[in-house]
Every structure is written in C-alpha cells, then in structure tokens.
Amino acid sequence: MQDALADSWGEISVPANVSIGTLSVSAIFKKGNTAVYIDYSRVMGFDRVIILYRSEEEVKNWLRY
Q1: Is the pLDDT at 20 greater than 80, yes or no?
Q2: 14, 17, 21, 42 — which has fewest CB within 10 A?
Q3: 32: exposed, middle or buried (C-beta count within 10 Å: 0-12, 13-18, 19+)?
Q4: Residues contacting 49, CB < 8 A, separation 6+
Q5: Environment class of residue 28 by beta-carbon count within 10 Å: exposed (0-12), middle (13-18) or buried (19+)?
Q6: What is the pLDDT of residues 28-47, one digit of tens each?
C-alpha cells in the first residue's frame, strides 16, 4: 500500500519505533490539504492497523494526543 500511495502522494517521514516485543511503523502521505496516516503495530503477538484520512491539520492534531 505504501508504494501505491507514494506514486501520487508526497510522503512525510515518520521514524520507525522498534523495542522489545513491539514493532510500530508509521507513515504520513500528503496531497494538497489532505493527509493519510497509516500506522502498523505488533504488540504481544497482536496486529493493529490505523488508517486516518483527514485534512493535514486534523491528522497532525490527532497525532499530538
């Protein structure tokens, strides 16, 4: 999915977070004033995916919490 978005959306880099027993990889893509935030986490054997599609300002505000 990341490659497909990168073809037409600009990527804003988000650092990967890896610690003992946890993997978290995030990316934000921007096109105009719209942003897509994608987060994949694996914690204690459980997978979690978050996809947030909003204005760039709303995505940045959501990430502050």
Answers
A1: no
A2: 21
A3: exposed
A4: 38, 39, 40, 41
A5: buried
A6: 889 999 999 988 888 777 88
On whether the CB atoms of residues 34 and 53 are closer than 8 A, the answer is: yes
33 is written with which tokens? 């004033």
Which amino acid is located at 45 in the chain? G
pLDDT above 80: residue 1: no
The two tokens of residue 58 are 């709303």
pTM over the 0.85 mark: no
Distance between start and end Cα atoms, the chain: 25
